[in-house]
Design goal:
The complex is a heterodimer of chains A (about 260) and B (about 220).
Chain A lengths: L1 H24 L1 E6 L1 H5 L2 H13 L2 E6 L2 H9 L5 E4 L2 H9 L3 E17 L10 H10 L4 E3 L5 H12 L10 E3 L4 H11 L2 E5 H6 L6 E5 L6 E9 L5 H11 L2 H9 L2 H4 L5 E2 L2
Parallel strand pairs in A: 1-2, 1-3, 5-6, 5-7
Antiparallel strand pairs in A: 3-9, 4-7, 4-8, 4-9, 4-10
Chain B lengths: L6 H34 L5 H12 L3 H12 L14 H37 L4 H11 L1 H17 L2 H7 L9 H11 L2 H34 L2
Helix pairs in contact in B: 1-4, 1-6, 2-4, 3-4, 3-7, 4-5, 4-6, 4-7, 6-9, 8-9
Classes of the chains: A alpha/beta (about 260), B mainly alpha (about 220).
């Protein structure tokens, strides 16, 4: 019993010490999209941020819609998201003072190799073919940046795919959605980073790429209600600095033979 | 608040109940006899089997989900059945999750009481079969508790069915996976609403369970 008590005491003491440690050096919370986390970008760049600025950073990776909501609720200090129209609204509503460019990549439509649709650069035609031929399409369905883009494309075509039996809404992150598309040999819209970072893509290949409609810019914002304005500012300054931008541009080259994100701060 | 209760949500609730009832029924049919047998059987390595089954009682749903996923995936051993991301896959995962729980509770209850009951039965001159029946009758409450626990676990579980069901709208979207999705979307109010409905259903199940148990006791007294 005595042993147990002393063990507990040490345990609690250690927990308190660890707890104090993080608050003293300062921790900011970044709400971001699943694509930056699932692709491995954050693991690649954030340790450098912490080393250079001594700010610790806590990452919550959810869809863009949820990330913005975390910002509205004051649960995050900085946001790194990709849905330009939603970001502009966030600023207009006064939740952030400014939105800054950070980087971009592009979306790709992936689908089964040797399937009914050949490689092309016409997004609208590809979407129309998928729907008209009742080919399985896995939609994020989670109000994320990728999902919002997908819906914008359907909307611009005047088509509502919801209700089509082959149109599957899964409501999960990019990694999980891509995994399901691979398993089902279905089509899906993915950001290129998550696609390239996927170790095994089964029978899927890129079906459609290179269209203006598929450009995917990422922005950063400081949430107005942040309790750590210094840390948040440090993050924005750092990620837009030449050295961090250089770091972003090298991410993925060693592993995938090409960069996954292109800096544009 | 009840305008949130649209046909889609009602469909999700119906699917959840269908899934939960089916998986707890199947696991009961397998788990209850298994628990009783485990107590009465004598074989070398029994202690190890009991320890393993106790460990499985606490198996994390995501791990069970992952195992079922690997079995059912296209290149997996059962991939030819094309069951991944279906209702059936969710039931399979839940059954695997529930069997150790139901079996474990029944085993523990039987272990605690079987000696007393058997001694009583033998004194009364019962044969082996009659003893078995008496045992099940006497353990009624505990077995009932095991089934209700399994049902509750199946209803509240999210990790396994998310992985093997895929949370596909209108097909494999259950209440817990919908709550996760609503949170991911940032629609907290709806998530809470659905959470409350889930709690109400759980409460209702408990009330029904209590009612049945009381009635059972009353019929017992008539003997």
């Amino acid at each position: 019993m005595k042993k147990l008590a002393s063990f507990l005491a040490v345990f609690i003491f250690a927990a308190i010490l660890i707890g104090c440690g993080t608050t003293e050096t300062g921790t900011i919370t970044l709400a971001t999209t699943t694509s930056t986390e699932d692709s491995g970008l954050l693991d690649y760049i954030l340790p450098v941020f912490t080393a250079e600025t001594s700010w610790d950073i806590r990452v919550i990776s959810v869809g863009t819609g949820a990330a913005l909501q975390l910002g509205r609720d004051g649960e995050a200090d900085v946001l790194l998201v990709h849905a330009r129209t939603e970001e502009d609204r966030f600023v207009a509503e006064g939740y952030a003072e400014w939105r800054y460019d950070v980087m971009y990549n592009d979306f790709v439509i992936v689908g089964p190799a040797n399937g009914p649709i050949a490689h092309n650069a016409d997004v609208e035609q590809t979407f129309r073919d998928i729907l008209e031929q009742n080919l399985p399409f896995v939609s994020r369905g989670d109000n994320s940046g990728t999902h919002i883009r997908e819906l914008q494309i359907w909307e611009s075509m005047g088509i509502d795919p919801v209700g089509n039996a082959a149109y599957i809404e899964v409501g999960q992150g990019m990694g999980a959605t891509l995994g399901m598309a691979i398993e089902m040999e279905a089509f899906t819209l993915s950001d290129r980073a998550t696609w390239l970072a996927r170790p095994d893509v089964g029978n899927l290949v890129i079906i459609c790429e290179g269209s203006e409609l598929l450009l995917n810019p990422y922005g950063v914002m400081i949430v107005s209600t942040t309790e750590h304005p210094a840390g948040a500012q440090a993050f924005i300054d750092w990620i837009r600095s030449p050295s961090a931008q250089e770091l972003i541009s090298t991410f993925g080259i060693a592993e995938f033979g090409q960069p996954l994100f292109f800096p544009d701060a | 608040m009840f305008e949130m209760l649209d046909t889609e949500i009602l469909g999700i609730i119906a699917l959840t109940l269908r899934m939960t009832l089916l998986s707890s029924a199947i696991s009961s049919v397998i788990g209850i006899p298994l628990g009783l047998w485990l107590d009465s059987a004598k074989f070398p390595g029994k202690k190890l089997v009991v320890t393993i089954s106790r460990t499985l009682m606490a198996s994390p749903p995501v791990v069970v989900g992952l195992v079922v996923y690997l079995l059912l995936m296209r290149n997996g051993p059962l991939g030819f059945m094309r069951l991944l991301f279906t209702f059936e896959a969710m039931v399979i995962a839940q059954v695997l999750l529930l069997i150790p729980i139901i079996c474990g509770i029944v085993y523990t209850a039987s272990q605690r009481n079987s000696e007393r009951i058997q001694t009583f039965a033998i004194t009364m001159g019962a044969n082996k079969r009659q003893t078995q029946i008496l045992l099940i009758k006497e353990l009624g409450n505990e077995i009932f508790f095991a089934v209700i626990t399994g049902f509750g676990r199946a209803m509240s579980e999210v990790g396994a069915i998310m992985i093997v069901g895929g949370n596909i709208r209108h097909h494999t979207r259950a209440m817990t996976t919908t709550i996760t999705l609503l949170r991911n979307r940032g629609e907290i109010n709806q998530a809470i609403f659905l959470g409350i409905i889930l709690m109400i259903i759980a409460f209702g199940v408990q009330i029904i369970a209590d009612f049945l148990r009381k009635r059972e006791r009353r019929t017992d007294e008539n003997y």
